[in-house]
Amino acid sequence: xxxxxxxxxxxxxxxxxxxxxxxxxxxxxxxxxxxxxxxxxxxxxxxxxxxxxxxxxxxxxxxxxxxxxxxxxxxxxxxxxxxxxxxxxxxxxxxxxxxxxxxxxxxxxxxxxxxxxxxxxxxxxxxxxxxxxxxxxxxxxxxxxxxxxxxxxxxxxxxxxxxxxxxxxxxxxxxxxxxxxxxxxxxxxxxxxxxxxxxxxxxxxxxxxxxxxxxxxxxxxxxxxxxxxxxxxxxxxxxxxxxxxxxxxxxxxxxxxxxxxxxxxxxxxxxxxxxxxxxxxxxxxxxxxxxxxxxxxxxxxxxxxxxxxxxxxxxxxxxxxxxxxxxxxxxxxxxxxxxxxxxxxxxxxxx
Amino acid sequence: xxxxxxxxxxxxxxxxxxxxxxxxxxxxxxxxxxxxxxxxxxxxxxxxxxxxxxxxxxxxxxxxxxxxxxxxxxxxxxxxxxxxxxxxxxxxxxxxxxxxxxxxxxxxxxxxxxxxxxxxxxxxxxxxxxxxxxxxxxxxxxxxxxxxxxxxxxxxxxxxxxxxxxxxxxxxxxxxxxxxxxxxxxxxxxxxxxxxxxxxxxxxxxxxxxxxxxxxxxxxxxxxxxxxxxxxxxxxxxxxxxxxxxxxxxxxxxxxxxxxxxxxxxxxxxxxxxxxxxxxxxxxxxxxxxxxxxxxxxxxxxxxxxxxxxxxxxxxxxxxxxxxxxxxxxxxxxxxxxxxxxxxxxxxxxx
Amino acid sequence: xxxxxxxxxxxxxxxxxxxxxxxxxxxxxxxxxxxxxxxxxxxxxxxxxxxxxxxxxxxxxxxxxxxxxxxxxxxxxxxxxxxxxxxxxxxxxxxxxxxxxxxxxxxxxxxxxxxxxxxxxxxxxxxxxxxxxxxxxxxxxxxxxxxxxxxxxxxxxxxxxxxxxxxxxxxxxxxxxxxxxxxxxxxxxxxxxxxxxxxxxxxxxxxxxxxxxxxxxxxxxxxxxxxxxxxxxxxxxxxxxxxxxxxxxxxxxxxxxxxxxxxxxxxxxxxxxxxxxxxxxxxxxxxxxxxxxxxxxxxxxxxx
Amino acid sequence: xxxxxxxxxxxxxxxxxxxxxxxxxxxxxxxxxxxxxxxxxxxxxxxxxxxxxxxxxxxxxxxxxxxxxxxxxxxxxxxxxxxxxxxxxxxxxxxxxxxxxxxxxxxxxxxxxxxxxxxxxxxxxxxxxxxxxxxxxxxxxxxxxxxxxxxxxxxxxxxxxxxxxxxxxxxxxxxxxxxxxxxxxxxxxxxxxxxxxxxxxxxxxxxxxxxxxxxxxxxxxxxxxxxxxxxxxxxxxxxxxxxxxxxxxxxxxxxxxxxxxxxxxxxxxxxxxxxxxxxxxxxxxxxxxxxxxxxxxxxxxxxxxxxxxxxxxxxxxxxxxxxxxxxxxxxxxxxxxxxxxxxxxxxxxxxxxxxxxxxxxxxxxxxxxxxxxxxxxxxxxxxxxxxxxxxxxxxxxx
Amino acid sequence: xxxxxxxxxxxxxxxxxxxxxxxxxxxxxxxxxxxxxxxxxxxxxxxxxxxxxxxxxxxxxxxxxxxxxxxxxxxxxxxxxxxxxxxxxxxxxxxxxxxxxxxxxxxxxxxxxxxxxxxxxxxxxxxxxxxxxxxxxxxxxxxxxxxxxxxxxxxxxxxxxxxxxxxxxxxxxxxxxxxxxxxxxxxxxxxxxxxxxxxxxxxxxxxxxxxxxxxxxxxxxxxxxxxxxxxxxxxxxxxxxxxxxxxxxxxxxx
Lengths: 351, 351, 304, 398, 254
Ligand SMILES: Nc1ncnc2c1ncn2[C@@H]1O[C@H](COP(=O)(O)OP(=O)(O)OP(=O)(O)O)[C@@H](O)[C@H]1O
Ligand SMILES: Nc1ncnc2c1ncn2[C@@H]1O[C@H](COP(=O)(O)OP(=O)(O)OP(=O)(O)O)[C@@H](O)[C@H]1O
Ligand SMILES: [Mg+2]
Ligand SMILES: [Mg+2]
Description:
The complex is a heteropentamer, with two copies of chain A, one copy of chain C, one copy of chain D and one copy of chain E. By secondary structure, chain C is mainly alpha-helical. In chain C, 71% of the residues lie in helices and 1% in strands.
């Protein structure tokens, strides 16, 4: 199912407009991750897709059919609500089997299917319990199973894995991805975990204040962020932002004049800030003072002070070296943004 | 406030026993992260601490006083519930200020404090709204502010950041840590995000099936997991587990006889599986076949096939090299587990 | 808390909360109840001098053989069967439509509310007029569908039906208000989820509304059973101080009233009260049993 | 001024009086009470309306149980046996002289006697009379009927014209009783013999039963009183209480021409059952209060008050003297419709009061319903009545 | 639904003739019926009494029921079920039987002819308690715990959180009980002897007697009696609908 959102406007009563002229297209069978800060309108967007909210203006088009005003049932959507919305009076098994019951699937068959899905989300031991007797993560998995069972045309997942531990989350997102591939269902997956997004999404939509900042593939988003917001939003630890004026003297290469004219901020990803070894790809050499170094799991984090700015790097090996040193800025991982925050193309740097 | 849990037993009606003889101590002013798979009993443990659940046996001791049967108000606890439990008929401001209202703090003063906290959790624009008008993450932040406002003796946070985007999460956990340091409040922090746990916790409790698997500092937990479960639970991507029998022939060093006798499984962290460069710290050289390589954000992931097992490594650089190669197992990041899953001390390896 | 066991302390505390209700109930319901029920076993009782001849079951034997009592019992049961299901079904239907009404919801609500405040005397008069053979509004409609007019209130074959109609109409407002209030409390998310899961309106009703409304339906049903078993005012008002044509609308409560206040037979009335009470308890338990079979652990508190 | 009055009031003996009068009648009664209080300074009567008569009955019952009865109350003499059994009421014999008692209409007086003592004195009394629709009678070319035969005839003629002959109250017990009385077989005699199943009784009831069966006579049913039907103007006759005169006058449409007459006779005999209420005096309270109660009743029995009561409410004058006064006669002249009731006094009688009377009334109503609603044969239902009544009387005697 | 109500208002401005026979055509609007009715009895006094009694009774009922429903739903104690069921059973008692024993009690307490007799025995409503019980039982537990942890005592939680959160149901039962108190007839009649304490429904007695009823005046006074209830209802009606603050999902349109 190809999904088009056309010129959506939406304002919550008594609030500022949230969506203004929001437009995007999800290709048939695509898994799109929807990311954005809290309150950016992700849930709202899913609700519009599901038909729970009707936009003030604009259209929701499924495979060419305008469904903006179609009822919820007719859209054939599977959804995991952010707060699950499990039926409190039904057991886990019945909760999962509910969509099939609505489709008049025979009891035996639907329980069989429900059990299969319960197995997939690892909830089998809890089948006889009621939602009130489940832990948060268990509830979430029931909600996921319920959304998956009926093989919907569009799957909307609102942070379906937020309450799960890392291992289970990896397992389930892989499972979701597999099922999604098999059934070729267009899926929107809201997540706060960039790994989720980066690992399984075909494309990622970055939303902020109700505006789509960028919609692109994982790699593109990371490597070619459209603007400062996206660059800052994607990537852990966060990208380092330095005023252009502060870095300018240290550039080892010649930058295009337009770039120099417009760039206001420079963004350097932590892994692009390396122990100084001048190579072709080094853009600049920054003299810094080491502040702290520590490791988190397998990651070695280093914070350094550069001029007024504290920078973070993941590419400095554990060291007992002098406290002041020079770090190299790798071209691949360094971005320039103009005053509006839009990224400027660097062009080919001149050595 | 020092918190002791002594020999707790707890069984949900009609279920298997959850806690059996659970004992642990939280030092005064400590921030403890509580991690564990979904359904392992984290929320339950918090509820016992808060007094919401009374253990079937055992004691909860606060600073030497047995509070097992003390009422909730008397414990002076701040808590963020997994489902927030905001008061639906109160505005955000009033929700946050509620604990102070109960403490008969003057209106002006409590609203002032509430506004300060709202600022800290970045919810200020939403102060006049009601919980039903908030996004998931906004609700969570309100709950957090409410828990923090009254400067409790013990702070219990049940996945307080699960619905927040990475940046906000980092900001808030830092904020929590700062406040916790300032007020010296003993804190238990349930989280599924290992970064949260690893970054800010003084110590981490790993819970599984209602049993404490290990309680240790961040580094110790990662570097010296007590058992296979902990090793597997902590670390992203997951540790590679290989049957001892499969690896045995490839060891480059001589292992202690007891180790050889008891070890059943070998665990190798992804970052300890490096492109073969024999150094003193290399334990073994594994012949593998490259399966796939891809990058996620700044991470380079490689899966290789070794005997029957698929291994994952983050220490193999992007390569177009031959499909079969040898990978080195770094000692620091390689563990041996016996049949029960307990980690065996390696002793000093002999080259 | 959640799983804490009752203690002496907690019991004392709870009793403090219940005390106001309990004390008043004890003083003005339990105690007089004992006194009134005891009377059912008195024989040769001088009501004013409070002289008790002896204790016996004679009053119950009298009831057993009394044709009027048998009639009252039969009428009451027919009446209950006629009123309770219909009035609750109808109330549910109307409450649902009011709940979903987007336009005039307030106005409609008010319309259903008005019968509640209208005094039963006024209602009875109006219904008497509606039922009246010559100009009755009801007969007007019967005429439209080509039926012979019916003398609703004076024909023993129809007068019980007339009473049933009036009582259904009268009880609607109360049931609607309670059900509506309860419908409001159902989280809308469940409906949204159900719609997404493909449930049509009927399925939403059976799978979401009904189960989540069960506590209130239970309450409304029990209340309806209790109130209607005790129906008296409406009979008295509708038939102007009689029990309908040839006692066709004689209910147990009317019988009790008649025996007590008109015929100076308080002991018989008390015995009738005991029987009525027994029937009420029985029917209530039955209702509870039917509606409470599906009990699920709630996020809230375990209901008793 | 004010202060003085208060002292005089506080020294007065308060006599409480519960009555069942409402509306206009209540106002008239309050006036009488006020005048009594002004007429002397020993007693102060406080009259309180307690709703309708059935409400009042309930109140008395309740108050009796907790010994908070008023000094005097309005009630039906038929309750006397019951109250005596409960030890509630005190007779008037000591307070009213034989002469004073003798002045009361005999039928009324006799009603209040029980076990040889005068427990009740008449107050708001009425009889059954017959109302007729003048225009319809004229239209049907009929005279005002004076016998049941004539009434039956009116019924037949009226039916042919699509009209109803006779309207009755739902509780047309008076008419039934009157018929039995006229046939010389009171349903229950003074010495508690039951004659319901007597052949003469059955015969006497027959014409009425027949009219009810054929629909030439109709009872009021849920309307309770036949005057509703009568006022609609499609009914020729209505047998009802004289107490309704005022109400009918007030409710009758402007162009409605109607008159009243005595109830029809049966085989030349006429009997007229007295209805209405009496006054009783309770044992509660002080002696002075009881005396005050008696004093008030005596006051009411004086000509002036009796006539005032009768003329302003439409009830019958309870003393023979009052009935014959010129002023009352003047009143009757001016209001000819009230004449019928007054003339009934000669043929009026009262049912004996006995323990279980109210149960008997229920049984009698069943008979009335049997005839009017179920159209049961007169003999059958009267037989049943006979048995029931006998049982009632028997069980209440031991 | 509305027909009887409309007819009531309609009849209140007719002549007795009209209402007695229903045959004469409509003549005129007799608005003076209202004045006549008002003057026929001390309605001012009745109003005052009705207002005092109804408000006091309803308030009392709400307080006792809220307290008890809270205890039954939120507290654990011995005999909870038994006590609850016992109270439930009192709903099933035919009230007419209790009138006389209660009168005895009240007159022993010297409450007869005092407001106390009209108010206090009615300040316990098991029906209301039962209704609130059902509503309170459906409240999410965590809100209670959160409040307790926030330092609220049971008492504070009850009045500051539980009651406002159940505003809808409380208003609903409140108004239902208010109506039944307002229209109560037998009890105030039996428990009072004089007009000083009587309530509005007793005022309606003025227009009916043993021989018939003055319908227009009765209807006019009935309208006068129930008017305050309608006004109160219109005032609280907004409370019968959940406020935006509590609706978890309110669709924008559709
Ligand atoms: N009321 C209850 N009745 C029965 N079982 C329960 C109840 N509450 C929790 N459980 C069970 O107890 C176990 C522990 O639950 P708990 O909520 O403590 O898990 P958790 O560690 O918080 O999980 P999560 O990370 O998913 O929130 C789960 O298996 C759950 O199903
Ligand atoms: N019913 C409502 N009334 C008013 N404002 C609302 C309502 N629902 C949401 N909002 C506001 O709209 C904005 C977007 O909300 P939405 O729930 O879509 O955010 P989100 O992206 O899902 O956030 P989160 O990640 O925290 O769940 C938020 O600022 C929120 O406060
Ligand atoms: Mg959201
Ligand atoms: Mg949990």
